[in-house]
Amino acid sequence: LEIPTGIIADKISPCLSVKIGYFCKFLYIPFVLISFYIDNQSIITIFIFVGTAFFAMGESFLSGASSTVLYEATDDSFDFGKFISKVTVLFAAGIILSSFLAGYFYEISPQVPFIMTGITLLFAFFISLRFKDIRNEKYTSYRKILKISSQLIKSSRSLQITFLYSGCIFSVGMLFTWYA
């Protein structure tokens, strides 16, 4: 299930969408890590629900926008299709490798894979802050990004409902996988 966050990439900036996406995905990590230290099952469920809602929003903001940012940074002579296919293969190999390593690191401590993921997402977020929007340079400051995204979410009732709905669906799915 994906929410229509492409409006930010289309109307304002794909760079802004990528920045918001990585930041939202990073916000997932503290909620999960804190849930390891809580004894109350209801509060754990709330923390995981809120964290996975942030993760779902981040995925939605990144969907398509990250490819757009890469595409806009290239010139016409660059074979973008070939580049994306190589990136996809490397991404799949990274997922396979990290799946094996996550199990090993989980044996050391259940928090370690989440901490490593958080570091990676934070690193990706800081890299995305350096992206320059070719179409529109006025949205590059972090303060403006937060202001514009909060205004957009506050002004659109349908976007708010869609965020809530998709966050609920994603969180329930994550809860089933965690407790299964």
Provide an overview of this structure:
The mean pLDDT is 76. The longest helix is centred in the middle third of the chain and has 29 residues, at 80-108. Helix 3 crosses helix 8 (157-179). The chain has eight helices and no strands. The chain starts with 5 loop residues before the first helix and ends with a helix. By secondary structure, it is an all-alpha fold. The protein is globular.
Overall structural class, as computed from helix and strand content, comes to mainly alpha
Largest sheet: none
How many distinct helices?
8
Overall outline: globular
Encode the helix/strand succession as letters. HHHHHHHH
- Measured distance between first and last alpha carbons: 21 Å
- The count of β-strands is 0
The fraction of residues in strands falls at under 5%
Work out the radius of gyration.
18 Å
The helix content is: over 70%
| Average residue-wise pLDDT | 76
Low-confidence stretches: none
